[in-house]
Amino acid sequence: MLSRAVCGTGRQLAPALGYLGSRQKHSLPDLPYDYGALEPHINAEIMQLHHCKHHAAYVNNLNVTEEKYQEALAKGDVTAQIALQPALKFNGGGHINHSIFWTNLSPNGGGEPKGLIPLLGIDVWEHAYYLQYKNARPDYLKAIWNIINWENVTERYMACKK
Amino acid sequence: MLSLPKLKYSLNALMPHISEETLNFHYNKHHAGYVNKLNGLIKGTPFENKALIDIMKESSGAIFNNAAQIWNHTFYWDSMGPNCGGEPFGEIKEKIQEDFGSFSKFKDDFSNILCGHFGSGWGWLALNNNKKLVILQTHDANNPIKENSGIPILTCDIWEHAYYIDYRNDRASYVKAWWNLINWNFKMSLACQKNYL
């Protein structure tokens, strides 16, 4: 059975995104596989840093920003609300994009999609590949096709179609 | 045909703040890569025989990105050096005090901008159109010359490739270390800025 990679204390696989309008804090989703599971295409060091540092920072910063936003709403402080928009966008976007990205990859992935056109995100920030591929982004983009989780991508498309 | 400007120091000259490995990749792969890419892109176009600064000012898209990144990196290498860092001296020292109040205020403000910048880009100390020193941040390949926001005096590269090997995600530590490398000698002479404009 595949163990799930967690940062710090073990956590249950929580919903990746808090539902809009709720005050529930966002949490870092566990990966559906170990940090080393995608080797040799993406190494364990990158996966751990990418998940525990980069993605975790987006989650933490999103929670902090949302708290401030709630305060600004409560006070009716429109100036503060507007000033917080970029941080909501950057950190919310970073959290959403990474949450999708982890599920788009699988140690049993690769090959070709079956049937339908998939929905897929590939992280091309340098942190996603630099330690292993340095400046050679094309090599990373070539390797990643070996770990695309087509089942997940197809599920997403089906869910969107409804 | 444009060529990669020579580095004024050896690849291990900025240790321990920036490693030889980083400098090797950053200069010989990234910076060199922009030069090779641009030469390919401008071949057979009106840009082919123009000076880099003119290509940068007049182009957009991929040609601009590569031209500006060549310029930005050359400026970055010249902003640093071995046996550098510490506090500014002479003309630039006085100007920093005049426009920021103190060097430590300037250092804090600049560090905060560099650490807070989202995504790829550059932080700049520039002389604005009112002849005041200002701190600017630009995204991706942009710079104050293109944005017409000032004359660059100093730059720090905050693309992840500039620090990821040495500092991983810890950009704040890279920024802290970078202050040990600033070539204030270069920055003192505003006359030398003319070489870049």
From TrEMBL, chain A:
It is found in: Mitochondrion matrix. Its EC number is 1.15.1.1. The keyword Manganese applies. PROSITE patterns: SOD_MN. Its cofactor is Mn(2+). Residues 25-106 form the Manganese/iron superoxide dismutase N-terminal domain. It catalyses: 2 superoxide + 2 H(+) = H2O2 + O2. Residues 116-156 form the Manganese/iron superoxide dismutase C-terminal domain. InterPro entries: Fe/Mn_Superoxide_Dismutase (IPR050265), Mn/Fe_SOD (IPR001189), Mn/Fe_SOD_BS (IPR019833), Mn/Fe_SOD_C (IPR019832), Mn/Fe_SOD_N (IPR019831), Mn/Fe_SOD_N_sf (IPR036324), SOD_C_sf (IPR036314). SUPFAM superfamilies: Fe,Mn superoxide dismutase (SOD), C-terminal domain (SSF54719), Fe,Mn superoxide dismutase (SOD), N-terminal domain (SSF46609). Homotetramer. It holds the Pfam family Sod_Fe_C. GO terms for cellular component: mitochondrial matrix. This is Superoxide dismutase. It comes from the Eukaryota. Belongs to the iron/manganese superoxide dismutase family. The keyword Transmembrane does not apply. Destroys superoxide anion radicals which are normally produced within the cells and which are toxic to biological systems. Mn(2+) binds at H50, H98, D123, H127. One of its GO terms (molecular function) is manganese ion binding.
Automatic annotation (TrEMBL), chain B:
Gene3D superfamilies: Fe,Mn superoxide dismutase (SOD) domain, Iron/manganese superoxide dismutase, C-terminal domain. Residues 3-80 form the Manganese/iron superoxide dismutase N-terminal domain. Its main location: mitochondrion. Mn(2+) binds at H26, H73, D157, H161. GO terms for molecular function: metal ion binding; superoxide dismutase activity. Keywords: Iron, Manganese, Metal-binding, Nitration, Oxidoreductase. Transmembrane segments: none annotated. It is found in: Mitochondrion matrix. Its EC number is 1.15.1.1. InterPro entries: Mn/Fe_SOD, Mn/Fe_SOD_BS, Mn/Fe_SOD_C, Mn/Fe_SOD_N, Mn/Fe_SOD_N_sf, SOD_C_sf. It catalyses: 2 superoxide + 2 H(+) = H2O2 + O2. Belongs to the iron/manganese superoxide dismutase family. Destroys superoxide anion radicals which are normally produced within the cells and which are toxic to biological systems. PANTHER family: SUPEROXIDE DISMUTASE (PTHR42769), SUPEROXIDE DISMUTASE [FE] 2, CHLOROPLASTIC (PTHR42769:SF3). This is Superoxide dismutase. It comes from Piliocolobus tephrosceles (Ugandan red Colobus).
